[in-house]
Task: inverse folding
């Protein structure tokens, strides 16, 4: 694709000269010429140029006003002003206001050559970037159903870290949530071994979404294949009364029971959460629906249970979301002790939680923490290490006998700190070993044309990673380390007095003798020859 060029100038000689320029050789195409700003605007609308060369002083509409109007048509267009010395200050002001550049008349074709190459590269880069984002947007739109499903899954299971992340992701997937009710559904005898086929699951999700959409503003849904459970979120308008929302949810569940039984021979158990307006509480509402659904399973026969109808004891259950657990374990296994301890305190110091609630949550954390290395989704160092879990194994007895939440928190923070320190030490040893190998390599190959990129390639790492390792464990940059090694080798060779100075420079990796002298003087305060005289 060629860059479209347009020239606007009321001087025929300039216009003709610019039009005669070999644009094709620069991957450009001259698409239009004009003799004043008004005519230029008409042609800019027709041909959408990428690059415009325009005079400043022209009849009917001057170049500055033309440029401003042309930018309204295409704010990405590059604008170059052609001007004489008497309008030089205008051209400088135009560049200050956003023009790409200016050329003095008569046009110097050497300068024009350099300017076009610069602008051509900039335009191609912008077009490539723009095309990349357009393609990315297209991919995003194609994958939006899957992305929404993943978002709903993260939302109900409490995996979204902050309110800011939640707001950003909600907007990104085009979902607006003002008021909602969660509904959890399981098929009777779903855990008996006769699992549903994927077509049946897909059919039920579609049936549920279609029916629920009749009773609310919108529906979000997902299938939890771990628990063999269908989850639906019914969205309502902010103004809808709570009683109306609950009645609609119950009516929708009644209809779904009937249709499921008739169409796919499903007998289902349904749990309905309380209504909520805070999206960040979605996981809590989901758990309400799950608890209600679990009670519905015991009653059977297509039962619908409201969470609000359950015993008050159930209403005060506390659970730690999977998302919070994952974030805590990542901090523990990466050695972030202070951050992990802070998370533990936030999880267990809950105003309305009873001691037994905290014991349950603490035991849940212990078991999950022991399983975490084996449950990592990708192969990583965490899985390869051996850990001493004895303190966690003792935790069942300690936590079971605890007489206060404070005792539980103290035990967990101490135990998890041991695990974090243990893992950090292992990681620290690995990093130091890697740095030692890098330093050995530099000592052996300093005479070669070494760069940070070449060393990183040698160790199959990114240059950023190598740079950070050296900075952390040697407290010096790669270049400073390499220069020090080379200068020390040069100093020893000078002391041996077997080589000429330029030979020493070459043997320690310097093809530029003058640069070698500068580096040596900067390191030792004297030139190589002056240093030799002191020996």
Result:
């Amino acid at each position: 694709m060629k860059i479209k060029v347009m020239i606007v100038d009321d001087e025929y000689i300039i216009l003709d000269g610019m039009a005669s320029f070999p644009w094709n050789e620069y991957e450009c195409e001259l698409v239009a010429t004009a003799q004043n700003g008004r005519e230029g605007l008409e042609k800019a609308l027709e041909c959408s140029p990428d690059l415009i060369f325009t005079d400043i002083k022209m009849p009917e509409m001057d170049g500055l006003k033309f440029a401003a109007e042309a930018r309204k048509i295409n704010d990405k267009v590059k604008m170059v002003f052609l001007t004489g010395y008497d309008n030089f200050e205008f051209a400088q002001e135009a560049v200050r206001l956003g023009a790409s550049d200016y050329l003095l008349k008569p046009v110097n074709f050497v300068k024009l050559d350099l300017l076009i190459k610069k602008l051509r590269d900039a335009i191609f880069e912008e077009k490539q970037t723009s095309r990349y984002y357009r393609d990315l947007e297209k991919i995003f739109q194609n994958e939006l159903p899957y992305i929404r499903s993943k978002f709903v899954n993260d939302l109900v299971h409490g995996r979204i870290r902050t309110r800011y992340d939640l707001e950003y992701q909600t907007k990104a997937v085009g979902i607006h949530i003002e008021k909602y009710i969660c509904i959890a559904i399981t098929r009777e005898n779903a855990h008996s071994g006769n699992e549903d086929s994927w077509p049946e699951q897909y059919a039920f999700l579609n049936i549920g979404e279609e029916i629920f959409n009749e009773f609310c503003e919108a529906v979000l849904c997902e299938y939890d294949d771990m628990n063999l459970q269908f989850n639906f979120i019914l969205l309502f308008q902010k103004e809808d009364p709570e009683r109306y929302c609950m009645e609609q949810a119950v009516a929708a569940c009644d209809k779904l029971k009937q249709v499921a039984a008739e169409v796919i021979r499903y007998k289902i158990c349904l749990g309905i959460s309380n209504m909520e307006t805070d999206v960040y509480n979605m996981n809590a509402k989901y758990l309400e629906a799950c608890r209600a659904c679990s009670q519905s399973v015991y009653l059977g026969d297509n039962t619908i249970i409201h969470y609000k109808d359950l015993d008050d004891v159930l209403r005060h259950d506390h659970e730690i979301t999977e998302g919070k657990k994952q974030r805590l374990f990542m901090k523990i296994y990466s050695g972030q002790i202070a951050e992990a301890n802070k998370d533990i305190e936030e999880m267990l110091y809950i105003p309305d939680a009873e001691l037994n609630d905290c014991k349950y949550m603490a035991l849940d954390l212990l078991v999950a923490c022991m399983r975490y290395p084996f449950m990592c989704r990708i192969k990583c160092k965490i899985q390869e290490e051996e850990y001493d879990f004895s303190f966690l194994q003792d935790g069942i007895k300690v936590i079971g006998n605890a007489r206060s939440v404070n005792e539980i928190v103290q035990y967990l923070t101490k135990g998890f700190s041991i695990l974090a320190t243990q893992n950090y030490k292992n990681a620290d040893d690995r990093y130091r070993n890697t740095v030692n190998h890098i330093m050995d390599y530099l000592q052996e190959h300093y005479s070669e044309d070494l760069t940070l990129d070449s060393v990183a390639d040698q160790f199959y790492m990114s240059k950023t990673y190598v740079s950070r390792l050296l900075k952390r464990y040697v407290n010096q940059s790669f270049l400073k380390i390499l220069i020090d090694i080379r200068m020390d080798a040069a100093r020893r060779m000078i002391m041996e007095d077997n080589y000429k100075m330029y030979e020493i420079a070459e043997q320690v990796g310097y093809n530029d003798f003058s640069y070698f002298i500068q580096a040596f003087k900067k390191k030792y305060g004297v030139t190589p020859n002056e240093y030799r005289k002191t020996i």
Summary: The chain has four domains: 3-129, 176-315, 322-426, 446-533. Residues 109-156 form the longest helix (48 residues).
